[in-house]
Automatic annotation (TrEMBL):
Residues 15-24 have a biased composition (Basic residues). GO terms for cellular component: NatA complex. This is Uncharacterized protein. The lineage of its organism: Eukaryota, Metazoa, Ecdysozoa, Arthropoda, Hexapoda. InterPro entries: NatA_aux_su. Residues 1-59 are annotated as: Disordered. Keywords: Repeat, TPR repeat. Gene3D superfamilies: 1.25.40.1010. It comes from Spodoptera exigua (Beet armyworm). It comes from the Eukaryota. Signal peptide: none annotated.
């Protein structure tokens, strides 16, 4: 019997999450290297064509400082810059602090939280991290009224999938907080309460119709 077969379900889930993330990271690094190689070859070919006086040769991009500094979609350009950093410099806290700044401006709370957790794991005492935590709390206070069950379920799914690492205790606390805010949402009810609701529903379906109900149905 293999070691994997002896693992508890929770440990097996963690192992599979790590394997998926490792595979995804390897694929991203491979794709990035391939992309860099293609760009290098295109640039080299274009330069050769220009040197040979080919009138149809594509023009090389000019590095104009003002144009580069004033992108029409700065946040999207920042995201493109961030992706290889998250792959190749995931062990640097500046990568995750920058990610927070981008997602804060894009109003992406789940990704803000992910960036904060990754930064905290690297250096919980970093002065900029403290500032990010305060701003994140302020964002939550300002946007708490707009929370809805569907969005909270998405967060719960991410927590259960291990996107933020092992956090079983935090999951229970999160479910309890959601249950208090949305007491009628089935997604946050405990299994025992769901079972009781199902039993009540079956009992209601099987109950004989009363004379008044028969008259109404006829």
């Amino acid at each position: 019997m293999s070691i994997i077969e002896n693992l508890a379900p929770s440990e097996l889930k963690k192992l599979r999450n790590k394997q998926r993330k490792a595979k995804r990271k390897a694929e991203q690094e491979s794709a990035l290297q391939a992309q860099v190689q293609v760009k290098r070859e295109q640039h080299h070919k274009a330069r050769q064509q220009q040197e040979q006086g080919d009138p149809e040769a594509p023009q090389l991009d000019e590095l104009i400082p003002d144009k580069l500094a004033r992108a029409e979609d700065p946040l999207e350009q920042a995201l493109k810059f961030l992706q290889p950093l998250r792959t190749l410099a995931a062990d640097r806290i500046d990568t995750h602090l920058m990610a927070f700044e981008i997602y804060f401006r894009k109003d992406k709370p789940l990704l803000m939280l992910q960036s904060i957790k990754r930064a905290h794991r690297l250096d919980p005492e970093h002065h900029h991290l403290h500032d990010c935590l305060l701003r994140f709390q302020g964002w939550l206070d300002d946007n708490l009224a707009s929370l809805n069950p569907a969005g909270c379920v998405d967060v719960l799914d991410s927590l259960r999938d291990g996107d933020f690492g092992p956090c079983e205790k935090e999951i229970e606390q999160y479910i309890e907080a959601c249950r208090k805010k949305f007491p009628y949402a089935i997604a946050f009810k405990p299994a025992s309460e769901l079972s009781a609701l199902a039993d009540d529903h079956v009992a209601a379906d099987e109950a004989p119709l009363q004379p008044k109900e028969i008259a109404v149905n006829n």
